Amino acid sequence: MVAVIWLYLLAQQTEVDYSKTISETEWSVVEDTEKEIFDAVILEDTTLITATSIKHYRRLRVLSERGASAAELTDISNRTKGIEGRVIDADGTVTTFKEKTDLIETLGYKSGWTKTKSKILVPPGLTSDCIVEMSWSEPGTDGLPQGVYAKRYVIPDQFFCLLKTLKITNTAIRRQTSFLPTRFVWTQIRPPAEFQQTEKNGDYTFVYRNVPPLIEEPFGNEYLDPGMAYVLIFKTFPDYGKEPQSFWSDFGKRYVNEVFDIPYNTPKHYDVWIDALKKQMTGDLQKDAATAFHAFAAKYRMSSFLTAEERASMKPDLEILNDRLLLSSVEKAGYTPAHYLAQILMKVFKDLKFEPYVVFASSVESAPFRLEEMNPFVLDISYPLVALITGEDQWLVFAPSDPQYPAGFVPAYYRGQTAIGFSDATKWGPTTVSLPRLPWDNHVALRQYEMTLETDGKAQFRVVEQGRGRMAARLRNSFFQLSDEERSDLLRSIWQRRARSWLISNAKVVNASRFDEAISCQVEGQITLDIEGSEWIALNPFPGDRGIIDLDYEWRKQRIQPILLPSSCGQIDETHCVLPEGWSVIGDPSWEKGCGMGSVRFTVKQEGRDLFVKREMVLENSLVSKEAQPHLMILAAWMEEAMNQTLAIDTNGGAL
Amino acid sequence: MRRLVFLWLFAPLVLSQNYDKLPDWAALAMKSAATKEVPDADVWRVFDSTSIKWVKGQLHLERRLVQVVLKDRGSDEASVFLVDGDDQTRSVKKLKGWHLRANGKLDRLDRDNVITVGNASNDLITRDTTTLAVFEHVSKGSVVVFESNERENSYLGPVFNLGVLDSMPILKRTITVSADGGKHFELMPLKCEAWGLTADVTSGSVTFQNLPALEDTFLLPERVDDYPRVFVKLHGEPSIDARYESWDAFAAWYAGAYASAAGVSLDGHGASSFEEIADLMKTVQQRVRYKQVYLSPSSGWQPHPGKEVFRKAYGDCKDMVSCLSEQAKQKQIAVLPVLASVDDGPNTGPDSPVSPAFNHLIAAVPLTQSLGLDSEFQAGGKRYLLLDPTSKNTPVGKLAYTYKGRSVLVCSPQGAIWHQIEDKTLESGEVKVRLEGGVDTHCTFTGLIQIQEWGNTYGLRALIDNKNNPLEVERGVRWALDIPNTTIMSLRDQKVNDGVVTLTYEMSWASFLRRDAYGYRLPYAVIQAPRATLTRADSKRWEPIEFGFVPKVTWDVVIDSPVRLEPGEGNLSWEGAHRSFSWQAKMTHQLTVHYELWGNEHQYFADEREHGVQAWAEYRKTYNDFYKSATLLIP
Predict the structure, then answer these.
(1) Do B515 and A591 touch (CB under 8 A)?
(2) Is A311 on the interface with B (CB under 8 A)?
(3) Half-sphere exposure of B209 (CA within 13 A, CB side)
(4) Which residues lie below 8 Å from residue B165, measured CB to CB, with a gap of 6+?
(5) DSSP letter at B426?
(6) Where are the alpha helices (DSSP H) in B317-376?
(7) Cβ pair B312:A555 closer than 8 A
(8) B236/B231 Cα distance (integer angstroms)
(9) ipTM value > 0.90
(10) In this predicted model, what pLDDT tens digit does every residue of A104-130 receive, in sequence order?
(11) B335 close to B412: Cβ distance less than 8 angstroms
């Protein structure tokens, strides 16, 4: 009897009354640009998480054609079921819909023995002035969707939300085992949005009101948006403790230690190789670590750093034992999977008597890592970094799966984050690691042009393009996997596309496949400029160039999130052009401008027939507050100006 | 010289293998290729064959490809074979593959490397799928071979076009038709000579040799029927053959099929007032959102019943016509379906081979009297009004500019009524922009920008009519006028009067004036950048040349400047064959600039290509000289 009543009450709790009249207040919701109410408003959104299911209810006020899309459902996971609802048009017409009649199933994916379906629901009767109510559910286990280990319910939505409720019943997480128990954490929300949290008999309810829409901003992170709020439900690792310090200590000793401890059974070729490497050590930690890293990167390469010929002959049969990769099998396979590289690098550094730390970080684009959340899923466990201490809170960081970058370089998606490191030097206890951001002169694109101009308008140039840090890596990524002939061919076609009317006659890439040598690209081109009947010609001193960073994004007027650019960087282009006798530059085309974000300088000097042009563009700061946006946009405008500037060359012996 | 050296380096590496492990037809193709000049490309398709049969109401297609990877960066392209399908109408009966590696090892296509992906989304509700067959470990020197057998239940019957060119050079392309038991067929290369391609036509096959790669370059034709193709029509099913005997037969067939699917009759009387027509259009356009739904073999051609479209409130062009028919039925007004082809669709007309070469459906409503509207026409003693319910923002009585030069086919049970769209029917497209304000010593402009748009030229009216939020409209303005994202714009005013949009923004534009040569330039949004050459100095244009239509855009710039800026030229106009511009500029107490640019469409095919090259060269020289000198603002 009790069970029947309980089931009845549960059913009552979840049943939607689709005959209820919609209030005038809800009908009268209109667009309000200041509050960011446009296209649609979520009147009410409820998620109920029980032991076996996750039930959803949503009521929307649609205000435009674009807003109508908020009511459409596309489910490629094929988990959604029990969809039903109604659309009430502004003219009073009511159209109901049910899964059986209105849900469209199509093929999602089919391969070998696997087949999935996609479900699409476009509520019938949906216009650009209506209210939509709908409900659906999906199967769940232990408070999470089936097959999912972590789920973050982000409270801000695509549209303004009047009321959002998330309820976790005590039944959802009642079945706690010591293996991967479920936990949840939540955040509040900043005004003007409102938040209330209640708990009764183990049922938790989180209520959020007047939530502004979540906006995607270029180089932003929605998790750093002041309006961000979420409820995070996740399975933790086996009971590692309830306090952050003990949790991470257990995590290090019981998980990290097992995976990253020294792999056993090193083959002979490894022993010979490490002995030879030991002989190259000088005692200077930074230098030795860089030497070792380059040697490691040349020996253990992922498939994306093999030449095409090597890739074609690689064999996928690697031997793994207890999560450790057997080094003896790497030689045969011809490659090393990316997520084992950190393991091997740790071994190499240990054999060389360094004290390496394996470091886990979260990406700048996802939720930041917070120790107190005790959530390992937010970390990028698969592609860790390896770091050495070089001073007090000073770290030399290596990215084993990004060997094209120099030692000490941290990939852009980790830069500036707080990470967590583990080492047997600290008995695998946790250490907080601040990942550095390097100054702009660590990432510089350099081009040096030699140019000649003849009286008949024929012009030739030869350019050597090099780079430091990320700029060098950018070059290496393009060419590493190709043969020498193909590198030339690709370089020529890239420059031809950029140099437009010039004819690229020669192109060569040097040191493309050596991580320890500077890569450079050498290109030659010609053009015949049209000087007939002209008193002056327009000369582009840097044909075929390109910028250091693409800033051509949509920038909102009032930015909310901080700005996280990939890195500070610079570009220095220099041209030495030999002009015919008597030809000269007209006017004074030199200029320079600077602001808090960086600077642009364009310098022109003529000495006799020799013309020297230098263009320097510097992006000084890459992690700045939202207030810096106007300065960044201005800097982008100056960079574009400098990229398009030509020189006027008087061909008439100074008549102009 | 460089190219010959390149060929010499590659040829022996690529074509020196033993091909006996490949199927006979592929081995033969490779042996034949070994005697030919190797092109400068990433991938070379040495054999491409499509065989077509019509068997018991079903289309049988067999495709065979043999591709050689000449450069490593061609590996990805060569390693994939795509089959477009639909789990109800098209099936892949057999799919085989062979990969002969550069080292001589042979891989057969693995079942696990055949993936079929559904193409549905909530914008396109469809059963369409794409099947990909993929080989791994493909590299320079690989020979990749695919063979497929496909079956298609085509609602339209065996009438279609097959493309000839692809993104890689093709040594031999063959299309073969076999007919059973005396049935006959038509196999016709179209537009091939216009591209300088020679088709070898025999009974039952068309063969091309040494087809060049179709690369992404500019001034290429826009419409699909301007590209070389082979028209295929198989006869043998009396019910299908009958509809393709003539345009009258086709139109009558479609009228019946449409009426049956829409659940309407094509009988009825004509409309007699503008108001009743405008009312019908408004009801449909306000209710129905555009969405494509293709869930059955006939979905591409048969509409959903009008009542159902009204209930669901979404559908595509033919659904909207069906819904219009349903609404009109209630007033006993007849609505006839009208087949059309717009945008990049083929330019089908009464002289085209009878085929379903249309991509749009609109409506024709008989009139009892003239209503004085531009989209009226007379045929066979009757008066009709053309209506396009899909084009929500076009006034009743007009059609969008995309119908320029097109013919439409009114389908009635009595047969075909072709109508050539006259220019007066079209909404005129024009845009005027006014910039007024000042520049400071950093060359930042601060002031107002006002945009006026006629005829929904840039889609701005559509954005506003669909009640889209101001950010969407601003995005549309930036895209249309190429205003950089570094500018800051705030909407001050938005008006739509008689279909004309006026938008006014407050604006801050950093580096509005930028240094160049020995003065300053206006932004590229106002005066476009210098034109590039059509081809590199060491190559020749082989593709046809098309100058596309450019709607007239006028810029009026009035700015206060801390420094006097004299324009290089005060007054300059040029009208070329296909492009024209006009410039007036002067400095008094302000700098004022008036600039107009517009262009007409024209195509240069076959022997006329050289004229097209010269037309571009003339335009380029004139424009670049104008840009260099006239538009330079000298302090």
Answers:
(1) yes
(2) yes
(3) 7
(4) B195, B211, B212, B213, B214, B227, B228
(5) B
(6) 317-329
(7) no
(8) 17
(9) no
(10) 888 888 887 888 888 888 999 999 899
(11) no
